[in-house]
Specification:
The chain has about 230 residues and is of the alpha/beta class. Helix content is about 40%, strand content about 10%. It has a single domain, classed as TIM Barrel.
């Protein structure tokens, strides 16, 4: 991934992932409340446009898609065309499965899951960062488990005590990791996006490290629980 230098200097460390916007069903908590019953192509295209507009206006310059994210690439392509944006103005990352498509170039970014429940990739990501790679964290909210509507009351209480939303504190935890370059928001509403974008590494203080240790679970358990989540 080649970032235009001016974007590196000015863009926030939070990007927007379209995994939850590009398809009618996903495993995110509280999706019914956020999206409602209308999951038509045009409804999701319009919602994607709205969230992308809000993200761009807030300074977000990294957008993440994949072939497996329903119509995310199609939605994004239409939005880019309508906005008339060029590669010098925004960075798009996508994935194509397991086929090597690097045109014999060395891949210079890595993206993986890291969150307060599943932090096992930390050491590997720190080494990647030290080697000069851009480290992109996805699923910082554990598909909605680390939000006000999630299943981690201790985190909810800690966030409330600091006057923050739970998603803000969870993303702040990711931003506080010294090896993280970009954290992806998976917001499907402008309101949630703005809450995500308000996160800051400064919101995560040393007093919360004990909570982080208590929240972490074994990786096989986390991934087994994730695999059993319902698509809604």
């Amino acid at each position: 991934m080649s970032w235009p230098p001016e974007l590196l200097r000015t863009a926030p460390r939070i990007g927007l992932g379209l995994a939850a916007l590009g398809r009618p069903a996903y495993i995110t908590t509280d999706r019914q409340a956020e999206l409602g019953p209308d999951r038509s192509v045009e409804s999701l295209r319009q919602r994607t446009d709205e969230v992308l507009d809000a993200a761009y206006e807030a300074g977000v310059r990294y957008i993440d898609v994949a072939r497996s994210y329903g119509l995310a690439e199609n939605f994004l392509a239409g939005w880019l065309q309508r906005r008339g944006l060029t590669a010098a103005e925004i960075v798009v990352g996508s994935k194509w499965g397991y086929t090597y498509v690097g045109s014999w170039r060395m891949f210079d970014a890595v993206q993986t899951t890291w969150n307060l429940l599943e932090p096992s990739s930390a050491d590997t990501l720190a080494k990647a960062h030290a080697a000069g790679m851009t480290v992109i964290v996805k699923e910082a909210l554990a598909n909605g488990r680390l939000t006000d509507a999630g299943d981690q009351p201790a985190l909810v209480r800690a966030a409330a005590a600091r006057g923050l939303s739970t998603d803000n504190l969870a993303i702040s935890a990711a931003l506080a990791q010294p090896w993280v370059d970009i954290v992806l928001s998976g917001a499907v509403t402008v309101e949630t996006l703005r809450s995500n974008l308000a996160a800051s590494a400064a919101h995560w203080d040393s007093e919360l490290n004990e909570l982080a240790a208590a929240l972490a679970i074994q990786a096989p358990v986390y991934w087994d629980e994730r695999a059993r989540r319902s698509w809604t």
